[in-house]
Amino acid sequence: MKNTVVLAVSVMLMLLLQNCYGQSASKQTDQKKATEYSRTDSAPVNKSNQDWQKVLSPEVYEVARLKGTERPFTSEYEHSKEIGTFYCAVCGNALFKSDAKYESGCGWPSFFEPINKKSIIEAKDNSHGMQRIEVMCGRCKSHLGHVFDDGPPPTGLRYCINGVVLDFEKAKTAEKKYSAGKKANSGS
Ligand SMILES: [Zn+2]
């Protein structure tokens, strides 16, 4: 009997802990990352596809390095309204802010502008019998998606991005408020 209670309590504790940690960590941050992955280092990353394949999940590798496209309407980021920053899932480069995100209905996360001109690289893409502009990560040159000129103001652009190559981090406003409150308390 006692053992059952101990077991039940430990299971509850485990679930509780899992919940706490599960909230801040997105699915993709649990994945193995390349040693070059950094959200602060902006030095260009050059690595062969052979080496990328060793550190990336098959889904990320397929899109990022083989210029694949994830199935439409499958990304958890397509309809997300959370405030924060989207990073390259391959190298950690900051790509898009949530305030440039909008609902295009095209089936992939869509943005009207990148964080800055250097955060991405654009190149002509004439594959699959179409004339499109490919969008790549400005740091590691991973394929992200395409940009089209049917977006909303102020840019009129639609950056149509595969969610699988994005890492999202929520803005830390709530945490800032919390630590500011703690400071005020300790000061009194
Ligand atoms: Zn990158």
What does this structure look like?
The chain has a single domain, classed as Metal Binding Protein, Guanine Nucleotide Exchange Factor, Chain A. Helices cover 28% and strands 21% of the residues. It has four helices and nine strands; from the N terminus they run H-H-H-E-E-E-E-E-E-E-E-E-H. The strands form two sheets. Strands 3-4-8-7-6-5 form a six-stranded antiparallel β-sheet, with no helix packed on it. Strand 1 (84-88) and strand 2 form a beta hairpin. The radius of gyration is 20 Å and the shape is globular. The relative contact order is 0.16. The site of zinc ion has 8 residues, from loops. Zinc ion (ZN) is lined by residues 88, 90-91, 93, 137, 139-140, 142.
Helices and strands, with pairings:
Layout: H1 2-24, H2 49-55, H3 58-64, E1 84-88, E2 94-97, E3 101-102, E4 110-111, E5 120-125, E6 132-137, E7 143-148, E8 158-161, E9 166-170, H4 173-187
Antiparallel strand pairs: 1-2, 1-9, 3-4, 4-8, 5-6, 6-7, 7-8
GO molecular function: peptide-methionine (R)-S-oxide reductase activity
Protein name: Peptide methionine sulfoxide reductase MsrB
Domain MsrB: 49-171
Primary descriptors:
3-stranded antiparallel β-sheet; 188 residues; 6-stranded antiparallel β-sheet; Metal Binding Protein, Guanine Nucleotide Exchange Factor, Chain A; alpha+beta; 9 strands; single chain; binds zinc ion
**Rg (CA only):** 20 Å
Within CATH, the superfamily carries the name: Peptide methionine sulfoxide reductase
Spans where pLDDT lies below 50 across 5 or more residues: 19-29
Shape: globular
Largest sheet: number of strands, sense, barrel closure: 6 strands, antiparallel
- Percent range for helical residues? 25-40%
Average predicted confidence as pLDDT: 86
Order of helices and strands: HHHEEEEEEEEEH
User: Separation of termini?
Assistant: 49 Å
CATH architecture: Beta Complex
Classified by CATH, the class is Mainly Beta
Percentage of β-strand residues: 15-25%
What's the β-strand tally? 9
Strand order of the largest sheet: 3-4-8-7-6-5
Query: What structural class do you assign from the helix and strand content?
Result: alpha+beta
Please count the helical segments. Answer: 4
The unique ligands bound to this protein are: zinc ion
Overall domain count: 1
Kindly report the CATH topology. Metal Binding Protein, Guanine Nucleotide Exchange Factor, Chain A
Organism: Dyadobacter linearis
Cofactor: Zn(2+)
Binding site for Zn(2+): 88, 91, 137, 140
Active site: 160 (nucleophile)
